[in-house]
């Protein structure tokens, strides 16, 4: 099981400072969608240059022109690139094809997918690397989480690794771990704490214990 730190509400220098603090406690650093919107793929490039041994995920949440966008994120240094499960089959297949060419990985974000069970099986057959259940900020605000959805994909996904994101905190991490995802994605549960390094270390400990 791996731990990914999601950085959403920072600029590039702040992102790099944060990662300096927690680098030893995380496996993957995510350049979140708002950071890409604000700073462009330069954020991915600068993060990879600053931490060459850390895997960098570009959370592009691709919806169209997937091959091209995967190519550009790969050129910037991303190791993993996200596409939406709600995208066209052709887009997801195009993302997988380009990622394979570039030696990169694709994570499919299932945010807002209504028939999760069916779509997860379809997407799994396209050869994607990760399938991620995700409760976004707007649904977190009304008390939703992805714990049940994680159990659903654990049941039906046969090839891809499984991932979970959305409002995971130290207090809820054990419940998430019980479902045995391959990847746990945490943003505010680390960056919103006073002791960021301590929070990352505690989360890493639980994730590694599995
Ligand atoms: O992709 C995202 C929002 O769309 C976030 O990166 C993801 O939800 C993890 O952050 P948090 O733990 O703060 O919810």
From TrEMBL:
Name of the protein in its database record: 3-hexulose-6-phosphate synthase
Family: Belongs to the HPS/KGPDC family. HPS subfamily.
Top EC category: lyase
Catalytic activity: D-ribulose 5-phosphate + formaldehyde = D-arabino-hex-3-ulose 6-phosphate
GO molecular function, one term: orotidine-5'-phosphate decarboxylase activity
Species per Swiss-Prot/TrEMBL record: Peribacillus deserti
Lyase keyword on record: yes
PANTHER family (UniProt xref): 3-KETO-L-GULONATE-6-PHOSPHATE DECARBOXYLASE SGBH-RELATED (PTHR35039:SF3)
EC numbers on record: 4.1.2.43
UniProt keyword annotations, A-Z: Carbohydrate metabolism, Lyase, One-carbon metabolism
Residue span, Orotidine 5'-phosphate decarboxylase domain: 2-203
Entry keyword annotation includes Repeat: no
GO BP of this protein: 'de novo' pyrimidine nucleobase biosynthetic process; formaldehyde assimilation via ribulose monophosphate cycle; L-ascorbic acid catabolic process; one-carbon metabolic process
Pathway(s) per entry: One-carbon metabolism; formaldehyde assimilation via RuMP pathway; D-fructose 6-phosphate from D-ribulose 5-phosphate and formaldehyde: step 1/2
């Amino acid at each position: 099981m791996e731990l990914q730190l999601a950085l959403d509400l920072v600029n590039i220098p702040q992102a790099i400072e944060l990662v300096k603090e927690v680098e030893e406690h995380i496996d993957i650093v995510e350049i979140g969608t708002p950071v890409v919107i604000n700073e462009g793929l330069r954020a991915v490039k600068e993060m990879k240059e600053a931490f060459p041994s850390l895997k960098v995920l570009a959370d592009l949440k691709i919806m169209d022109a997937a091959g091209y966008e995967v190519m550009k994120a790969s050129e910037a240094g991303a190791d993993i690139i996200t596409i939406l499960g709600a995208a066209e089959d052709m887009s997801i297949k195009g993302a997988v094809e380009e990622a394979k060419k570039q030696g990169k990985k694709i994570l499919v974000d299932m945010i807002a997918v209504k028939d999760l069970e069916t779509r997860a099986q379809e997407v799994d057959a396209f050869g994607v690397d990760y399938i991620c259940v995700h409760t976004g900020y707007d649904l977190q605000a009304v008390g939703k989480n992805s714990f049940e959805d994680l159990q659903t994909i654990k049941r039906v996904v046969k090839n891809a690794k499984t991932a979970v994101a959305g409002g995971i905190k130290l207090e809820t991490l054990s419940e998430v771990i019980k479902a045995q995802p391959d990847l746990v994605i945490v943003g505010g549960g680390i960056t919103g704490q006073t002791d960021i390094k301590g929070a990352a270390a505690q989360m890493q400990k639980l994730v590694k214990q599995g």
